[in-house]
Specification:
Layout (H helix, E strand, L loop, with lengths): L22 H5 L5 H4 L12 H11 L6 E6 L5 E5 H17 L7 E5 L4 H12 L3 E5 L5 H11 L3 E4 L1 H6 L12 E4 L15 E2 H7 L14 E6 L9 E5 L2 H11 L8 E4 L6 H13 L3 E5 L5 H11 L3 E4 L1 H10 L2 H4 L8 E4 L6 H11 L3 E5 L9 E2 L13 E2 L5 E4 L12 E5 L9 E2 L3 H5 L2 E2 L2 E10 L5 E6 L4 E3 L2 E3 L1 H8 L5 E11 L3 E10 L7 H14 L8 E4 L13 H9 L13
Helix pairs in contact: 3-4, 3-10, 4-5, 9-10
Bound molecules: adenosine-5'-triphosphate and magnesium ion.
């Protein structure tokens, strides 16, 4: 029985009935405007994400409900109710307003997952600003590029991170104020003369603030894409995105008011804001923020301790959990988990099978991108999970598979994954790059850059990014299918598949394979893996070449960078590697 971690009372009334009982029924005749009334809106018709995520719950009498449980990396714990969140975000809104922040001005946040990040995030939105969180593991260059590109005027950081990027800050002339959070005086360093102290500013600020009446079309959040296929692009979202973030929290993550929710993504990536903040809080859910990094034990400890009910994570993390094995699962009580979902990369069928064994339930894959701002296609709680499929579009979303001329293809054919524009959380620009933005729209469709297929029942099956699809002897091969077969081999933990040029076949499939810790990467094993995949895949698709690799190159958001495998294989320039994870 799940219980409230604060009151310790059992949540006896928690409904386990899925929020979206019949997706196909719900999709019939659905208009997004039908959903507008589930948000509160501002008295004069404006829409502000911060009001919908925080203040409205106070208005509805839930001010004392726990909004955020913060679990610090050193075992600290802080708890904030919706009322406290309202007060803290109001203070920050006053701070930045007093510093001259105007409507549409950018505040960039370069911080670990501390509560102050969340206060500043929503406070900036209340003040009418646009907020851009940056992943704290970034080195100086990616931070410089994003500050320069966005023209951010306020930069919020913490002492050790400020130190890390000190060299590039003079190259960012748009920054007017650097504000430093020295949480619990974790750092004894003195502030630079020109810097402002977060603690002092907040202490002096009032916790009353009249939210700027932003319209649903005002810009709110900026996120740079992961950089998997090239230079990261700055996607800009509007306040209207709240509608879809709320709806998908309910439908695709099946959030109920009493849930204890844990999203493992960092706010530096879109999942960490759309689903690390907006979806849970617009749904009034208690959101667990875990400051530490990945570790199977710590994650399971956290789920066990706080009795997490809904858990949203990513395939790379799931593969790492698979590698950590059954032992740490057995050492914890994870029975509170009611719904598990995944996004960011294709979820290998093997991972769904493993999830069933470990957690007695399927892991629900869903698909979306930085540009889409919210989940577009999902496996729902009410729906049979087809392992390897990303499910069906959410109500109100039309997805199609197109040929090379952007014409719609029938079910069962491979093609370009596209979406009919007009969904609420649709990005509205690539910052400073309208040419790239315009290039994404063809014949009335938004072209996602992914390749997929739709089956007769309307389920979508991801094949790969258009850039990664391999053309071998007239067959188009998606790397996902091959990688999924490879990781079914008991000694393989991760695989990345590319096409390498070939005189006869145009390209042949080459696999890079990482093995379980302790496994010797011998020639015999290589042959065994090659034999194994040949039993799973047709001859045309099975890799012709295979190479062992220690670990695959990934973005900091955990995506396999096949373009880098390819560039290295062919001795070509590596391109933009600003988001490459450290080895
Ligand atoms: P860039 O656009 O800079 O190359 P990126 O596309 O990886 O980076 P994101 O917006 O973070 O940046 O990721 C979105 C992409 O992630 C999707 O277009 C898709 O390729 C992949 N993706 C996300 N979820 C899934 C999923 N469930 N199944 C398969 N692929 C997914
Ligand atoms: Mg992309």
């Amino acid at each position: 029985m799940p219980f409230d971690p604060i009151s310790k009372a059992p949540i006896s009334e928690m409904s386990v009935m899925p929020n979206l009982v019949d997706r196909d029924e719900a999709a019939k005749g659905f208009e997004w405007t039908d959903m507008y009334s589930e948000l509160d809106w501002l008295p004069d018709g404006g829409l502000n994400k911060a009001y919908e995520a925080i203040d409205r719950h106070v208005e509805h009498g839930h001010g004392d409900k726990v909004a955020m449980i913060w679990a610090g990396k050193n075992g600290e714990e802080e708890i904030y109710t919706f009322s406290e969140m309202k007060a803290q975000t109001n203070r920050w809104a006053n701070v930045v307003t007093d510093l001259g922040l105007g409507r549409g001005d950018r505040v960039f946040i370069f911080m670990d997952r501390l509560p102050e990040l969340y206060f500043a995030f929503f406070g900036t939105l209340k003040a009418g600003g646009v907020v851009g969180p940056l992943f704290s593991a970034f080195g100086p260059e990616p931070v410089r590029d994003r500050l320069q590109d966005s023209g951010a005027s306020i930069f919020l950081t913490q002492p050790e991170l400020r130190e890390k990027v000190a060299g590039i800050l003079p190259e960012c002339p748009d920054i007017k104020h650097i504000i430093v959070v020295n949480k619990d005086r974790r750092s004894s360093d003195d502030l630079a003369d020109s810097d402002l102290s977060y603690e002092e500013l907040m202490l002096d600020a009032s916790d009353d603030f009249g939210i700027v009446s932003t319209s649903m079309y005002d810009y709110s959040i900026m996120h740079y894409t992961s950089g998997t296929t090239g230079k990261p692009k700055g996607a800009v979202h509007r306040h209207l995105a709240a509608v879809q973030q709320y709806a998908t929290g309910k439908w695709a993550l099946d959030l109920h008011f009493d849930d204890i929710y844990f999203c493992t993504a960092d706010p530096g990536w879109v999942t960490g804001t759309s689903y690390g903040m907006m979806a849970p809080w617009t749904n009034g859910v208690t959101n667990l923020i875990y400051e530490g990094g990945f570790s199977a034990n710590n994650w399971y400890d956290t789920i066990d301790k706080y009795k997490v009910t809904v858990w949203y994570t990513a395939p790379t993390a799931i593969r790492m959990l698979m590698r950590a094995g059954e032992e740490p699962v057995k050492n914890h009580d994870l029975s509170s988990l009611r719904f598990i979902a995944s996004v960011g990369e294709p979820l290998n069928p093997e991972a769904v099978v493993w999830g069933n064994e470990m957690f007695n339930q399927a892991i629900h894959d869903n698909w979306w991108q930085t540009e889409t701002g919210a989940i577009m296609c999902a496996n729902y709680a009410s729906m049979e999970v087809r392992p390897g499929s990303m499910g069906k579009p959410i109500p109100g979303i039309e997805m199609g598979i197109l040929d090379a001329e952007y014409n719609l293809l029938p079910a069962g054919e491979d093609g370009l994954l596209a979406v009919k524009p007009g969904w609420p959380s649709q990005f509205h620009a690539y910052w400073n790059n309208s040419e790239m933005y315009n290039s994404k729209y063809k014949k009335g469709w938004y072209i996602t850059g992914d390749q997929a297929q739709m089956d007769e029942d309307g389920y979508f099956w991801f094949q790969g990014r258009s850039d990664d699809v391999i053309n071998t002897a007239g067959h188009l091969v998606g790397p996902f299918e091959v990688e999924s077969a490879l990781i079914e081999h008991p000694d393989v933990v991760e695989a990345g598949v590319i096409g390498v040029p070939d005189d006869i076949a145009m390209e042949v499939v080459k696999a890079f394979v990482a093995t379980r810790p302790g496994v010797e990467q011998t020639d015999a094993l290589r042959r065994d893996i090659m034999r194994f995949v040949r039993t799973k895949l047709s001859a045309a698709v099975a890799p012709r070449q295979m190479e062992f690799i220690e670990s695959l190159p990934k973005t900091r958001s955990g995506k396999i960078m096949r373009r880098l495998l390819k560039a290295r294989e062919l001795g070509l320039p590596e391109g933009d590697i600003s988001t490459l994870e450290d080895d």
